[in-house]
Structure formats: C-alpha cells, structure tokens
C-alpha cells in the first residue's frame, strides 16, 4: 500500500461507524478521515444520515465502529471529553443570544452555567476565557466586532460568530452542520474564504452543507452519503463528475 504523504497529519479517523434508530440504518459502516489543515465535505440528500454521523462522533448518539482523534480512541468518551480532546461542532439551529455582545456569546458557550454565572466569574478564570474568546474571534476575522450585538452584524458575520463559538478553547477538528444556511451567494463566498483561512491555521474541518457551490469551492475532498452509506469520495471535480452522485444528489444543479 502506498505510504501517506509525510506532510499530512491525520486528525480524525472513523472506521465502520454504524448507527441504528429502530429499524432505520441511519449510518452504515462510515469510514472517513480528516487531516490537519484540510476541509472535507460531507454531502447527501435530506435524511441521508449526515447529522447522525456528527451526533455519533461527538458522542451524542450510540454507534458501533471506531472514532479516533490524533490516533487516540474516543469510543469510551462522552460528549464533554470529546470536546476537551479537541472535537468541536456547530448545531443546525445555532442561534445567538440577541441581548449579548459577540464576545459574551462566546463566553457563555465556553463557561456554560448560564449567562449570569459566566459574566460574573472569578477574575483568573475570566482572563483565561477572554484570551480563548479573543483567539477564536481572531481566527474567524471578527475581533473588531467583539463588542457588537448580533443584530449589528450581517448574516454572514453572525454565522462566523457561530463558528467562533464552536472553536473557543483547544480545537483540532471542527464539524460544521449546515453553517451557510440562509446566506446569499456573496455572503457564502465570503464565508468560504474565512473557512479556508481557518483551516490554514491547521484546523481540520468537516463541512456539511446543501450549498453545493460552497462545498465544491472550498473542500479539498468530498464524501457523498446516501441512505446512510458513503457512495463516493474524491476531489470536488471527481465527485461532481461521478454518475452515482449525480443520480443520487447533484442532479442538474451542478452539472449545468
Ligand atoms: N433521533 C432519531 N431517532 C430516530 N430516527 C432518527 C433520529 N435522527 C435521525 N433519524 C433518522 O435517521 C435518518 C438520517 O437522518 P439525518 O438527520 O442524520 O440525515 P441528514 O443527512 O442530516 O438530513 P438533512 O440534510 O435533512 O439534515 C433519517 O431517516 C432520520 O429520520
């Protein structure tokens, strides 16, 4: 077997991940990898099993198979330990707190325990949090908007706050579940540029989105899921030319 190129550092590796919901085989033997600095797409029709996969690897739903981060198994770890190990996710409905500033939205996420507890925490802990919050905002290019409220931001910027909120603290892999939903073409292009900048910092990104232009533009590799299985994988050019993928998902939208 050919050796992996030395420059690639494997961060996330799953093997044979399967999830059953009653009689539904929501994930069927999913084997997938994300390297440092890489953006990997996971696409497929509604109900294909994409969110289930994120739920499984982040420890929110039971699975069989194996999930490793940096060569260490996470299979016995709950969601909090997986997050502390460096696996971060966004949620499909990732609304921000409208009454809090951008920075406060991140502080609440990292410290938990409610808004008041987070904002009145002891001095030392706040300082560490402030640094982590600042770093996350820097990574998505929003540090100048830290004291703004969400309604003073464009929708694209609000989406980036959601990304920053997910990566506060040590993060190796970022799992993005439909992060560009609702963005217009221009905002989606700008969002994609920020994702590329973010991955260039060494983060591995798994991007789930129905915006095919975004996925095919920013991803290094793409996995295509249908009925819980991976039906194709390759570069954006390879998967968009794959007949099975076109039949299952892409239709004429991308090929035209
Ligand atoms: N908690 C659950 N209990 C039972 N069935 C579920 C549960 N979550 C998902 N499913 C089923 O598992 C299958 C995969 O759903 P999933 O939400 O993972 O798909 P998806 O690819 O993320 O879809 P979408 O693109 O619409 O978000 C579907 O048949 C769904 O109805």
From TrEMBL:
Q: Name one GO molecular function term.
A: ATP binding
SMART domains named in the record: AAA
Q: Where is the ABC transporter domain?
A: 12-252
The keyword Amino-acid biosynthesis belongs to this UniProt entry's keyword annotation:
no
Source organism (scientific name)? Parafrankia irregularis
The family database entries (PROSITE patterns) matched by this protein are listed as:
ABC_TRANSPORTER_2 (PS50893)
Q: Name one Pfam family in it.
A: ABC_tran
Q: Is the Cell inner membrane keyword given for this protein?
A: no
**What GO cellular component term, any one, is given?**
plasma membrane
Name the UniProt record assigns to this protein:
ABC-type branched-chain amino acid transport system, ATPase component
Q: Which domain of life is it from?
A: Bacteria
Q: What does the UniProt keyword field contain?
A: ATP-binding, Nucleotide-binding, Transport
